[in-house]
Write a structure and sequence with these properties.
mainly alpha; Cytochrome Bc1 Complex, Chain C; globular; binds protoporphyrin IX containing FE
Length: about 375
């Protein structure tokens, strides 16, 4: 039998063998594995409110990441990152690789889903005050993962090496000049051996996902260490039942499969496009929608506004747990923090809509 008893505060494992009965092969196999790996340690109790959709958004973000990694590995078998072949290889994946169009579509939509889910998760954490003591460090880890997610979206956009990807890179090359020496990695001259497209590919398939996975491990360990924050309406968790974490994981798995189904349908109905090889010296495309708020700022104040807009947003996110010292978590008791959060959200939505209804303007070379 396992050395571990049932998790503290929980009834015995539902499949546990009754006293005196002979354990079945499945139970014996599980017990043998558990004795060596201690897998039942993850059956620790979590409060019932952790199963609500709002508290499952982080788990769903992680599921979207899993879909991205699996589909990304498939795409990497056929994608060629050399500048002369990149655009052609994406079209080849779509037209000639078995299920290639669908896998690329799922990868594209999973990226959109991960971005939206991460923002919804961030908003849940913000509006339930879950970044307050002792969870400040985990908020900062989350901010870093969010920045990396945006980095993954950007590098992914460049990889298809069509006009949209090329102009996205053009913006970043110009922005890297603005930050002087700090932008060294982004300059085309940084490596005499490899083109910047190959280096962005390396960032997209190994550096960024590797960092996200390392931070996600820390993030999850800290959630376990601090326990999920209580429901702000019931901070003492009075009368709240608990369930093993494995049940919570099962729910996330079920929701994740629904997400995968939705992404699979989107990939069939709205497959992502890929344009022809890029033309230098023109600026005609609109960036992906998640950058539109920055591009409205660019239309108003020039290219450097993209940089400052991003710096201000991330400085605000980093500052949140240090500025807000009010220990209350229920939104009605935090009028200032809640109003500011709503204000930032509304401002970003308005800036996004403004870019959607504006003709793309030219800024590159206009520093
Ligand atoms: C980008 C990928 C991210 C993943 C995969 C992720 C995953 C998770 C998961 C699984 C949880 C457990 C509770 C839940 O699901 O709500 C969690 C909690 C938490 N996350 Fe994230 N997260 C991400 C980004 C962020 C961001 C952007 C922030 C904030 C800036 C953040 C801050 C936190 C905090 C403070 C907690 C503890 C919340 C509590 O105890 O109620 N996370 N995260």
């Amino acid at each position: 039998m396992s050395r571990h008893g049932p998790a503290e505060g929980l009834p015995a494992h539902p499949a546990s063998t009754p006293a005196g009965a002979h354990p079945g092969i499945l139970r014996r196999t599980l017990d043998t594995i558990d004795e060596r790996l201690g897998i039942r340690a993850i059956e620790y109790p979590v409060p019932a409110h952790a199963n609500r959709l709002a508290f499952s958004l982080g788990g769903l973000t992680a599921f979207a990441l899993l879909i991205l990694i699996v589909t990304g590995i498939v795409l990497a078998q056929f994608y060629d990152p050399s500048p002369t072949a990149a655009n052609e290889s994406v079209r080849d994946i779509v037209q000639n690789v078995y299920l290639g169009r669908w896998v690329r579509g799922v990868h594209f939509w999973a990226a959109e889903a991960m971005y939206v889910l991460a923002i919804l998760h961030l908003a849940r954490v913000y509006f339930t005050g879950a970044y307050k003591r002792p969870r400040e460090a985990n908020w900062l880890i989350g901010v870093a993962m969010f920045a990396l997610t945006i980095g993954a979206m950007f590098t992914g956009t460049v990889l298809k090496w069509d006009q949209e990807g090329f102009e996205a890179l053009g913006h970043n090359l110009e922005l890297s000049k603005l930050v002087g020496g700090l932008g060294f990695w982004f300059t085309t001259g940084f490596s005499a051996q490899l083109s910047i497209l190959v280096r962005l590919y390396v960032a997209h398939v190994s550096v960024i996902p590797g960092l996200i996975l390392a931070l996600l491990t820390l993030h999850a360990l800290l959630v376990k260490y601090h326990k999920i924050s209580p429901d702000p309406r019931n901070p003492g968790e009075a009368g709240e039942s608990a369930e093993p974490f494995t049940h919570h994981l099962r729910r996330i798995g079920a929701l994740g499969l629904v997400l995968l189904g939705g992404l699979g349908v989107l990939a069939v109905l709205f497959p992502p496009t890929v344009g022809p090889t890029p033309v230098e010296g023109i600026e005609v495309t609109r960036p992906p929608w998640m950058y539109w708020w920055m591009f409205t700022l660019e239309n108003w104040a020039g290219l450097s506004a993209i940089l400052w807009g991003g710096v201000v947003l991330f400085a605000l996110l980093v500052a949140v747990p240090f500025i807000d010292r009010n220990p209350k978590r229920y939104w009605r008791q935090r009028p200032v923090a809640v109003s500011l959060g709503v204000l930032v959200l509304v401002a970003m939505i308005v800036l996004t809509v403004l870019e959607a209804i504006t003709t793309p303007a030219e800024h590159l070379g206009g520093l």
